[in-house]
Amino acid sequence: MACTALRGRPPAGRGAPIRRPLRNEYLHGRPHQGEIRGGAVRMDCPISGRADEIVAAESALAAGGVVLVGPAGVGRTRTAREILARARRAGRETEWLAATRECASIPFGAILPLLDPGDGPGAAPGGDPLVLLSGAVRRTAARARRSPLVVGIDDAHLLDDGSAGVVHHLAVRGLVSVVATVRDGERAPDGIVALWKDGLATRVRLNPLGPAAMTDILTHVLGPYIAEAHRREIARMVDGNPQMLAELLIGAHETVTRVRAGAAWLSESRDDAEGPARIAPENAEALSELSRREREIVLLAAGGAASKDIAGLLSLSVRTVDNHLGRAYAKLGVSGRAELAVIVAPRDHAVRT
Ligand SMILES: Nc1ncnc2c1ncn2[C@@H]1O[C@H](COP(=O)(O)OP(=O)(O)OP(=O)(O)O)[C@@H](O)[C@H]1O
Ligand SMILES: [Mg+2]
C-alpha cells in the first residue's frame, strides 16, 4: 500500500532530524498502539463492533453453547476469546482448544488439555479411546463442579473426529458449554455438527465489521493523525475484514521501512552512490551519468519505494518523480524498474550479477 494513504498531520517535534519535510507521521516514528513486529501485526486494541453478536452468543452459551460462523479473517477467534474472557471474569472456569491441521492428524490431539495426565500413557492423544473418554469425563467433572466448564474450540472444522466426539459427549452430559468457531465453507466434524443439530449450541453469524468499528480499529492502530479520506479509503479496501487490515498494515509497514531507509540516507546528505540501495560495481559508472536528483530517485526506487512514496519523501509531484525516473532509465539504457533492479540491488540483498 502506498504510504500516502497513511499520511496525516505529524505531531510536532518528534523523530530524527531530516533534511526535507516528511508528510507521513510513520516516518517520524510516532508510537502507535497496534504492534507491527517481525512481519506480524498485533492489532492490540479493544474489541469493537461485536456487541450484538456477543450478547447473542452469551445467551446461546447460557442455553448450552454457541458456534461462531463467518468468513476467513472476520474476527471469529477474537470474538470467541472475548466471550471466554468475559466468562472468566464472571467466575466461570474456561479452557481453550485450538484445532489445527497438524493436530487433526493425531487422534484426540486437540483435547489434550481436557485429558487426565494421571491416567498414564494410554490416556495420551493417540491412546485407547475409551480410557481417553473416561479420563476426560472424570477430569472435566472435577473442574465443572459449580457450572459447566466453558470450552473455546477455535477452528472446530479442523478437529479430528475423536476429539469432536469427546466434546460432544461432554456437552451432552452437561459438563462443558462450547464456544466453537467454524469458518464459512468448511465442514465441521459430526460431533460439532451434532451440537447444533441436538440443540446444544446455536449458530451465531459474524458479518464483516461496519464502518464505525473499522474507524475505531484504524484510529487505535494508526493513531488519530490519519486523514479522514485515507481512513475511509483503507476501510473501503479491507471491506470490514480486520485480518485483511492487519495484512494491509504489514505491507504498509514494509513500504514505510524502505522509505525510512531512504529518509535516513537523505538526512545524512550523502553524495556517494550508495544509499538505501547498493550499486553493482560494474554499473557505478553508469550511475555517475545521472544528475544528483535522478540518482536520489533511482536509489529510492531501487530500494522498493513507489513513485508516490518518493514524491512524498522529496516533496515532489508524482509526475516529476516519474519524469526524473524516465530520464534516468534513458541514460542507464533500461526500460523500467525490473531492469533497474538488475543494476541497483536493495542494500540487504546480494548484488545481482
Ligand atoms: N471486532 C474486532 N475489534 C478489534 N480487533 C479485531 C476484531 N476482530 C478481529 N480483530 C483483530 O483482527 C485480527 C484478525 O482477527 P481473527 O484472527 O479473530 O480473525 P479470524 O476470523 O479468526 O481469522 P482466520 O480466518 O484467519 O481464523 C486479529 O488481530 C484480531 O485481534
Ligand atoms: Mg481464527
Description:
- This protein has about 350 residues and is an alpha/beta fold.
- Among the domains are: about 50-205, Rossmann fold (3-Layer(aba) Sandwich), CATH 3.40.50; about 270-353, Rossmann fold (3-Layer(aba) Sandwich), CATH 3.40.50.2300.
- It has 14 helices and nine strands.
- The chain has helices spanning about 50-60, 75-90, 100-105, 130-145, 160-170, 190-195, 210-220, 230-240, 240-265, 285-290, 290-300, 305-315, 320-330, 335-345; strands spanning about 35, 40, 65-70, 95-100, 150-155, 175-185, 200-205, 275-280, 345.
- The strands form three sheets. The protein has a five-stranded parallel sheet with strand order 4-5-6-3-7, sandwiched between helices. The protein has a two-stranded antiparallel sheet with strand order 1-2. The protein has a two-stranded antiparallel ribbon with strand order 8-9.
- The radius of gyration is 27 Å and the shape is elongated.
- The two termini are about 30 Å apart.
- The model is unreliable at about 1-40, about 270-275 and about 345-353 (pLDDT under 50).
